Amino acid sequence: MVTLKHPALAQPETRTTSWARPLARFMQRNGAGLLFLTPAILVFAFFVWYPMVYGFVLSFQKNAFYGTPSFVGFQNYLFVLHDFNFWTAWRNSALYALYGLLIGYLIPIVLAVVINEVRRGQGYFRLAFYLPVIVPPIVTVFLWRYLYEHDGGLINSLLSLVHIGPQPWLQSPGTALPSLVIVTTWANMGGTVLIYLAALQGIPAQLYEAAEIDGSTVWQRIRHITLPQMRGIMLILLLIQLIATVQIFTEPYTLTNGGPDHATLTVMLMIYQYAFASGNFGAASALGVILFLVLVVLSLGYFGITRRFNRGVE
Amino acid sequence: MQQTIRWRRRTMRQQDADSYERSIVSALEWDKPSFKVARWVMFGLLLLGTTLTVGPLLWMATGALKPAIEIFRTPPEIWPSTVEWSNYVRAWQQLNSLRYLLNTAVLAAVAVVLQLAVSATAAYSLSKLKPIFSNVLLFFFLSTLMVPAIAYLIPQYFTVVHLPIFGISLINSWWAIWLPEAANAFNIIILKSFFDTIPNELSEAAKIDGANSLQIFLRIILPNSLPALAVVSMFTIFATWKDFLWPLLVLNDPNSQNVSVSLYQQAIAQNSYQPLNVLLAGFVIATIPPIIIFLIFQRQIMRGVVTTGLKG
């Protein structure tokens, strides 16, 4: 069909119906583009877009997996809200995030700054701190289970060398959650260190040069140049870490399965248990929707605050 | 010592070329005695810090060589009294290591191919062909990044159990891993922003020479985007290797499971009678392939982590 390529020239000899020509022109303009998008559209439609909508529908249904589902209004939501463990799970997830920030947020920043200053052995340090990120999470959790072992686990036996008695770690409600956070931090810190290292290397040297000529101390330079220059990436990683922490599953599921005494029951784990332990898919979906809404509010509020904060600085 | 000299020489050379990127402390200050001491102290602390990350892994690797009763000993022993290499042999045979390593390798390899067939084509279309509605579609792809995966985990599971329109179940089939994993908006964005940097003149010249869109995609866009393709492939390989919850849900057949699920099932559920040293050896075996891949592709991975802000 040469005619398609030169519609102006070809017009006299084509005898197409009135709609065929615009369609042909449309296909020539968009056909290949849409064709290349088709695989992505298909997998997204089946495995992301449709499930997203379906999850919302599911949260208003009584669905026992088999048989026809029935519409039950807000019953699933009420069921979830009145669950004895609902607030415990939210408190644990919030604590998980809080401990994660306390233990895991500052360390990578400090590490990156120090590695960047010392310079010597940078390749080794980058590799050594990144190594845990590569280890399959399932290996990480089992490894830590044995490190935390009460009798003779590496940590307690090292503590005994300095005459500290064995700690219960995962077995006591008070220490279980922080112990999980340590595992999570250990496993994920390396990636953050790399990102901060790159950000540090992007700070223009002239800024430090000028500050040094003005007679500033090292601490002043960190306080007034390094930290403000890194603020953008620090704020983004803070939000990413918060959202990621709420979705952590492997550690609490494999190490404590929510125990002892619900001390590590997170929202994520509760969704899993609703669905795959009690078969209550409606409730699981309802809690998923609630979690989604909370994260959206959190992100929006976070961006609102940082924007105001940024404006205040300027 | 030699390294110090080399380091010094390098900094000086770079200073001469006026391209030496100083950081907080300047080269001049580093020559002061107090700074020198501080630097060595920081270096020592960093080394100490790496024992926290490397140490547990070494404990795992040597623990696998110990007789089972020596693993939990106070005070801890660094090296076993009798080295039992046989633990690794037993782990290899009894934990079905070859099977799950091969499973995971195939899962990862096909995931990479599919990822390129789905994400790269879409990114090419969104970046160069820009058909009608491409902005709307881009928005719909992007918006999936805002929704945490857990929010649609259950309905996604339902979809896999009973695929709409087709009415088939993908449970225990590897397609249940591959297809949902191929729907990755992050990769589309990484690739699209890379394709955006390829000048349009290249593809237009090819078009004048009579190349069609597919030829332009295969012969011009893909060969010019190898760094971005490497990053996406690396992320896909590591994601497949680390995946746990989703394969736990959809792969019930022990013969089709990936490394994480298989080890989990064998360590917890079924074969928990396996002695600890054999289990530890199994964990080491499961950790070695990703470490090898990482060492080979270190530069690409580092660049990927840095440019995308995504953690492997």
Q: What sequence of helices (H) and strands (E) makes up the elements of chain A?
A: HHEEHHHHHHHHHHHH
The helicity of chain A comes to over 70%
The H-level CATH homologous superfamily of the largest domain in chain A, spelled out, is MetI-like
Strand content range of chain A: under 5%
Cα separation of the termini of chain B: 35 Å
Oligomer: heterodimer
**CATH class descriptor of the largest domain in chain A:** Mainly Alpha
Write the CATH homologous superfamily of the largest domain in chain B: MetI-like
Largest sheet of chain B: none
Tally of DSSP helical segments of chain B: 16
Total discrete domains of chain B:
2
Helix run count of chain A? 14
Describe, in short, the structure shown.
Chain A is mainly alpha-helical. Chain A is built from 14 helices and two strands, in the order ααββαααααααααααα.
Q: If you had to describe this structure to a student in words, what would you say it looks like?
A:
The complex is a heterodimer of chains A (314) and B (312). Chain A is mostly helical and 314 residues long. Chain A is 74% helix and 1% strand. Chain A contains 14 helices and 2 strands. Chain A has helices at residues 7-10, 20-58, 75-81, 86-104, 106-118, 122-134, 137-147, 154-161, 173-201, 205-213, 218-246, 250-256, 267-276, 281-313; strands spanning 61-62, 70-71. Chain A has a two-stranded antiparallel ribbon. The longest helix of chain A has 39 residues, at 20-58. The termini of chain A are far apart. Chain B folds into 2 domains: 22-92, no CATH class; 96-308, MetI-like (MetI-like fold), CATH 1.10.3720. Chain B has 16 helices and no strands. Chain B has helices spanning 2-16, 27-30, 33-63, 86-94, 97-129, 134-143, 153-161, 175-182, 185-196, 200-208, 213-221, 226-242, 245-250, 259-269, 276-296, 298-308. Chain B starts with a helix and ends with a helix. Classes of the chains: A mainly alpha (314), B mainly alpha (312). The interface between A and B is large, with 113 and 107 residues.
